[in-house]
Amino acid sequence: MTAADTPRVALFLPNLGGGGAERVMLNLARGLLDAGYAVDVVLAAAEGSYLERVPDGAELHDLHAARTLASLPALAGYLRRRAPDAMVSALSHANVVAVWAARLAGFQGRLLVAEHAHPGLSPRRPGGRLRRALVRGAYRRASRVVAVSQGVKDAWVDRLGLPESAIEVIYNPVVTPETRRAMTQQPDHPFFAAPPVVVGVGRLSPEKNFANLIRALARVRASRDARLIVLGEGPERARLERLVAELGLQDAVSLPGFEDNPHAYLARADLFVLSSDWEGLPTALIEALAAGTPVVATDCPVGPREILAGGERGALVPVGDSRALAAAMLQALSHGRPRVDPAWLEPFTLENATSRYVHAMGVATS
After folding, report:
1. Are 229 and 200 in contact (CB under 8 A)?
2. Distance between CA 37 and CA 8 in Å, rounded?
């Protein structure tokens, strides 16, 4: 097959900020390249912590837009000029722009929109009904809607009235050769010199509820020594730092910011805790299990119960209950590392996710 005959797939995102959806799309880019596809990573604005992670072989296209919505004309122009065989977009507002751009450009390829979030759990904002109507209309015009978990699919069917047949569940490509290698590295943090160490990973934003995790750690430390590292950056930093000071945990809680290799921390941790109020498919929870690290998670909508098989692979506790979270953390720290059947990880591997996306796109390499 010549270069001109190689099927081309575009992956569209607002930017490459350090979030789960961005990491997943870059993993998918690697999987598609390995499967023989040409890949364009198309960004409304080429900025963010993950820019350096664009895999070799993928072409980066910067639309130079101040906002995702403002990228609409440039994205339509890209589709006319480049004419990829398929495009995959992620995140609701980017998905709407992708559908509009495809219609404006007369795009004839397959368009998949990937939905990572529950539609009814984000903070209420003015114009919510209008946004839901826009999303509903856009998603009905996509070739396929991809939900990253069964819970996300069920929510979109229920809240927006999308037909079940229009939505396909494809778990995120979380477990990759790169993450396996990254887990073997040694994290550079002084807390690991004096375990046990608890790790949380995610954007410092309200829905992650790291405040609940910090309060739970204070309860844990009433019974045994433990330290907490929360990897991530976001708007809640100042509030969390104040809480740490109020609880006198300055020597026990570290907020080092964005970490390029969270996998090394997950592999060395004595416990990973997901404290979220809501999720879609929590990537770090899967990564911790893949590393063989004990986990505790809030039983939030949606994802943790699905991943943990109703509590078989790790404890599930009520959302926002620091007392219950602390009790589960103490129990997990006392039991050591569990044995995890590697077979359950197969749906979350890069190979499986790439194969599922390729099938949904219907674009073969030969």
Report:
1. yes
2. 6
Q: Diameter of the chain by CA atoms?
A: 66
Identity of the amino acid at 144: R
pTM of the model: 0.86
Instruction: Please state the domain extents for the chain.
Output: 3-173+349-361, 178-345
Convert the pLDDT of each residue in 213-241 to its tens digit: 999 999 999 999 999 999 999 999 999 99
Classify domain 3-173+349-361 by CATH architecture.
3-Layer(aba) Sandwich (3.40)
* Alpha-carbon span 191 to 197, nearest angstrom: 7
3-class DSSP state of 284? helix
Contacting residues for 22 by C-beta, under 8 A, at least 6 apart: 13, 15, 16, 48, 50
Residues 226 and 197 sit within 8 Å (Cβ to Cβ): yes
Could you report the per-residue pLDDT of 9-26, keeping only the tens digit for each? 999 999 998 778 898 999
User: Mapping DSSP to helix (H, G, I), strand (E, B) and coil, where does residue 107 land?
Assistant: coil
What digits encode the pLDDT tens for the residues 267-318? Answer: 999 999 999 999 988 999 999 999 999 999 999 998 999 999 999 999 999 9
Q: Which residues of 266-300 are buried (b: 16+ CB within 10 A; e: fewer)?
A: bbbbbbbbbbbebbbbbbbbbbbbbbebbbbbbbb
Work out the average pLDDT over 206-210: 96
Q: Is 81 helix (H, G, I), strand (E, B) or coil?
A: helix
Our separate counts of H helices and E strands in the chain read 13, 13
CA dist 85 and 83 (Å) reads: 6
Higher pLDDT, 129 or 10: 10
Chain-wide mean pLDDT for the chain?
A: 92
3-173+349-361 and 178-345 agree in CATH topology: yes
pLDDT, tens digit, for every residue of 146-156? 999 999 999 88
On whether the 178-345 domain is CATH 3.40.50.2000, my answer is yes
Section 329-345 average pLDDT? 85
Distance CA 208, CA 202 (A): 7
d(CA 45, CA 62): 6
Burial 179-190 (b: 16+ CB within 10 A, else e): beebbeeebebe
Pairing of strands 86-90, 59-62: unpaired
